[in-house]
């Protein structure tokens, strides 16, 4: 299990991470989502010991992750802004990384190179952005890590390659019981593969939950009533957001849908009442809206 | 449980891999060194000296560039994230870069040695390697350290030069403090203080291995190199531990180092400027230095922080530094003040010197103490050759201390064409310690009581037998005279042509002694004579061809003749002139 406890970090006077707590279990794909500049990459870099925290701890299977711990051999980080050593091809990269990763699998490497249809001898720095992402991913999987951190890994990939990515990743997680943390803005992609999600904003994790549980907690309904809608107040539910489009109201709430429906029927003549499905994106917007992010009205004169 | 991520055999594998990555550098460097130090001078049949020196410069450039490139991963966010995310500590990666470059440097030195051997160049080139090799090795360590301290490769290059020069920069800072001291406390000279410091405690010649150019390598040489490398390695270790990788991209990653650089620059620039200023009042000098210091500090901070807005913290830090600098300088001045009026008791003095030579007495004492010369007589030769008179008789020493008291009382000397010069008074005490004082006398004005007193005391000194034996040793020192074969030339002052050439000095000696005795007794500007010495006695400038000067020459008897003195044969030398007239 990968565990981050009360991690805080300031970049000079700016608080970048503020008491971060993160828990990712073995065999789990963890989606790290958040507003722009909220500290996702910084958090990943702390997990990899690239940055040193001001306070807090990172544990893997109960052992503190430190700069010279042996366990960092089981960690692999694919960064958003990819770097490959100068003049390196995938083959040369394999040769280099074989010297530092003991579990590296040449057989897996060859299989993945074929699967993604990559040229092993081509200079990595001359590859397209998408090819570089695939090459980095192939290398990461070949080292057979126990903790894999992927920062914006599918950014710039076409739909077909994305499918390939997810299929390889899911298979690896199943086979090797590894922890995968994916930081991404592509919430639709994460929606399909993540087991657990951490929503970050301004250096804090606002919410961390299993995705299914999260979806069950926050619900959305659309309804129409006769006459004016008054205040919706009850102990059985809590309205998070209410938007009126024409005569239809769209309401995001927590609590019981049944109780909400009963409440509406008791107070109003309900014309339409439908439950809508919630996506990760909806949850994300709702959660961040709760802290005032993205709720500002743009006034154009 | 913490364990090292890499075992030593893994390190060797990585080292081999790293060396393989450098194969192009090995090839191109071999070609460059081969072509420039071997092939071109061979084809041109040109002196190989220039090309071998050029080869040395090339090695410095190649090694310097390689070190910067190998450590440049510390200066780019994505590069650093890539390497730092690997299970090799940064310390191991830096060690790898240092080891790779050390092997590469060794290879280049071998190439150059082959060239030196091929050209059968003088041994001096191999001697120079004794300095170049430690410079290169220390340079490799310093480049790594500078790369860790900085977040930009170009700045890392600049900081490498800065860090490498730090011992020399500290020298300038100390010199600056001594210059201020010199301006405030009379009797103290910055150059002499610095000489004393660098000859005793702050051995720059050892730090930079310059001492070994003409010396064989010994255990101490290896020890110094080891200490320097261990010292830098320790700083590297500490800095790597404390490095804030998130500051990568800033010119300097460590705030402390950023302020250190700014503060040092804030001293060096005004120090260099003010030390070049002569005849400027101490107050003006301090004000100008302060202004320059503030300006330099602001500019350096603005560059390093990439902002024209200076933070309150930076201002506070500068103010703090100024206070510390003033305390150090003030402390040094206060410390020196208590010795300002100290004139030693003649009983405690072993030797004394008064003159305008600031270094010869120290060297004389140093040579004697370190048995550099074979015996005292040789050491005396050193004094004679450098035109300094070392007083050892009690009476002479008493008079020197008397003159020292006078110098403290009055710092003027208005006598004819005397020009302002440093007057150095030095003592070697019986306990082996030395006291060296330096006075600048004001030579502009009319004759004063002070001038008269100085001349009176000096007159007593120059008429002492000891002084005559040492200043005009070729005439008065019987032992010397008997031992050596001395002759003279009489030359025209106008065209330097030889009018008379003698076989020896035997006949004219008595006349010269008589004239010099008379001249010294009547000497009105005795103080000037004492300071500038017999050898530098100013010629009687006259266009009349009847004025001659005598060159007193020691016959080399097979080796080169040695000019011992030049005496202006003016109106004071009546007996000598009469002898010359009768004999020519």
TrEMBL record, chain A:
<protein>
    <submittedName>
        <fullName>ABC-2 type transport system ATP-binding protein</fullName>
    </submittedName>
</protein>
<dbReference type="InterPro" id="IPR027417">
    <property type="entry name" value="P-loop_NTPase"/>
</dbReference>
<dbReference type="Pfam" id="PF00005">
    <property type="entry name" value="ABC_tran"/>
</dbReference>
<feature type="domain" description="ABC transporter">
    <location>
        <begin position="2"/>
        <end position="227"/>
    </location>
</feature>
<dbReference type="InterPro" id="IPR003593">
    <property type="entry name" value="AAA+_ATPase"/>
</dbReference>
<keyword id="KW-0067">ATP-binding</keyword>
<dbReference type="InterPro" id="IPR003439">
    <property type="entry name" value="ABC_transporter-like_ATP-bd"/>
</dbReference>
<dbReference type="GO" id="GO:0005524">
    <property type="term" value="F:ATP binding"/>
</dbReference>
<keyword id="KW-0547">Nucleotide-binding</keyword>
From TrEMBL, chain B:
<protein>
    <submittedName>
        <fullName>Uncharacterized protein</fullName>
    </submittedName>
</protein>
<keyword id="KW-0812">Transmembrane</keyword>
<feature type="transmembrane region" description="Helical">
    <location>
        <begin position="317"/>
        <end position="336"/>
    </location>
</feature>
<keyword id="KW-0472">Membrane</keyword>
<feature type="transmembrane region" description="Helical">
    <location>
        <begin position="25"/>
        <end position="44"/>
    </location>
</feature>
<feature type="transmembrane region" description="Helical">
    <location>
        <begin position="161"/>
        <end position="181"/>
    </location>
</feature>
<feature type="transmembrane region" description="Helical">
    <location>
        <begin position="94"/>
        <end position="116"/>
    </location>
</feature>
<feature type="transmembrane region" description="Helical">
    <location>
        <begin position="260"/>
        <end position="280"/>
    </location>
</feature>
<keyword id="KW-1133">Transmembrane helix</keyword>
<feature type="transmembrane region" description="Helical">
    <location>
        <begin position="286"/>
        <end position="305"/>
    </location>
</feature>
<feature type="transmembrane region" description="Helical">
    <location>
        <begin position="50"/>
        <end position="73"/>
    </location>
</feature>
<feature type="transmembrane region" description="Helical">
    <location>
        <begin position="219"/>
        <end position="240"/>
    </location>
</feature>
<feature type="transmembrane region" description="Helical">
    <location>
        <begin position="128"/>
        <end position="149"/>
    </location>
</feature>
